[in-house]
Specification:
Length: 342
């Protein structure tokens, strides 16, 4: 039986790049797709970004592939407004996806597309491991007559499980990022990370780094990092900063994983880019690389994943450039270049 993949095209350029990803997947295997409405498209039809039926379909799938959500028509500062991003948070929570993996590996063919000098990024290969279901995004929040509050909270168990993911992924060093000079949650974070390291992973080097310093070092010395592990808010910001090392946020895939046996969620880091939706200008490469992560982490097919990743590298080496990379290739032309590489 073919693996079942729930596809969530979402909004903006989502349907266009999802078509590219499934075309690539079909070139390396047979899959059963179950396409569902999600995000803003679901709000317009069902009044909610994530329906119970879609969540149940995702729970029963082998993997979930998401394109992008959001758009100006759903933007609002009203705390009671329905927003596409609520579906993403609900999906992560509903599937128990606590670990977000974002690999950052500038491709040699794109070194000159990065805002940093070639000699600064050459040889960079790092992984950002972000805790995904705790912290300030999921804490108590509210307003009173004179202000507002958002609560950041972490338990020992939440910290331990994400830190183990980071140590398991590391080749040489884990950099744990916090704000332990100010925040009590960060002080607990540092204590737990240190304990897990000494008890279970003493062969891996561990360093602690304050988040403001980490933000600077990602620009000043990106080759220094192997695996970065951090809490939800810091990880959200640092992973987007790290994405620009590649020259475009349109190049960065991600995987969100939970307990063994649970379906993973795979998505590009970039947004829905409503300004270019329907113009055939969207870069599908991050979406295609997210499909490769689905093959590797979601379906345990590392050979097929490596084939897709190598095909993307070859396409770029042969001169493929979409608009965000300074070229003029369309979404379809970029997809064809990867298929030719396969």
């Amino acid at each position: 039986m073919a693996p079942r993949i729930v596809t969530l095209p979402g909004d903006g350029i989502g349907p266009e790049i999802m078509a590219s990803a499934t075309e690539i997947l079909d070139a390396v295997g047979a899959f059963d797709y179950d396409q569902r409405l999600f995000g803003g498209a679901s709000i317009d039809t069902h009044g909610t970004a994530l329906t119970d039926a879609v969540l149940e379909a995702c729970r029963g799938a082998d993997a979930v592939l998401l394109a992008a959500v959001g758009g100006p028509q759903w933007d609002s500062t009203d705390p009671d407004a329905r927003r596409p991003e609520q579906g993403l948070l609900g999906l992560r929570k509903g599937l128990g996806l606590y670990a977000n993996l974002r690999p950052v590996r500038p491709v040699p063919a794109l070194y000159d597309a990065s805002p940093l000098r070639r000699d600064r990024i050459e040889g960079t290969s790092l992984l950002v491991v972000r805790e995904l279901t705790g912290g300030i995004y999921f804490g108590a929040r509210g307003r009173d007559d004179d202000g507002a509050y958002d609560t950041c909270a972490y338990s020992v168990g939440e910290i331990e499980r994400i830190v183990r993911v980071a140590f398991e992924a590391a080749e040489a060093r884990v950099t744990s990022v916090d704000k332990a000079n100010v925040l009590e949650t960060s002080r607990l974070w540092r204590e737990i990370v240190t304990g897990v390291h000494s008890r279970e992973y003493p062969h891996i080097r561990l360093e602690h780094m304050l988040v403001d310093n980490a933000a600077m070092q990602l620009v000043a010395a990106p080759r220094h990092f192997d695996v970065i592990v951090t809490e939800n808010l810091f990880g959200d910001i640092l992973s987007d900063e790290a994405a620009m090392l590649t020259g475009s946020i349109g190049m960065l895939p991600s995987a969100s994983l939970g307990a063994a046996g649970a379906p993973g969620l795979f998505e590009p880091v970039h947004g829905s880019a409503p300004d270019i939706a329907g113009t055939a200008a969207a870069n599908p490469l991050a979406m295609i690389l997210s499909a490769a992560m689905l093959l590797r982490h979601g379906l345990s097919r590392p050979a097929e994943a490596a084939a897709v990743e190598s095909a993307v590298d070859r396409a770029l080496e042969s001169g493929l450039r979409t608009a965000d990379l300074g070229g003029s290739a369309t979404t379809a032309e970029a997809t064809r270049a990867v298929l030719d590489g396969l």
